[in-house]
Design a protein that fits this description.
Keywords: Copper, Cytoplasm, DNA-binding, Metal-binding, Repressor, Transcription, Transcription regulation. It is found in: Cytoplasm. It comes from Saccharopolyspora thermophila. InterPro entries: Metal_Tscrpt_repr, Metal_Tscrpt_repr_sf. The chain is mainly α and 93 residues long. Helix content is 86%, strand content 0%. Helix 1 (8-30) packs antiparallel against helix 2. The longest helix has 37 residues, at 35-71. It is elongated.
Amino acid sequence: MHGYTQDKDNYLKRLARIEGQIRGLARMIEEDKYCIDILTQISAATKGLQAVSLRLLDEHLKHCVAEALSEGGKNADEKVREASEAIARLVKS
């Protein structure tokens, strides 16, 4: 079981809202809306994805990484490496 499993419904609801925002962005472009308004909505969708990713990262650290660290060994090193790489990807985006 993954750390986010208990909160899966909330993640799915949030992603559905973001999906709606993305469809709205496409509609705005189709309708030739003002570019600043489109950029504002892109910023909102981006913030939504960032919030989801930070919550998932938090769950990963609390569940997967903490469990691996308590067991020790190579798996612990691998989980820490994965988390570090995920953080680096988030920081770059």
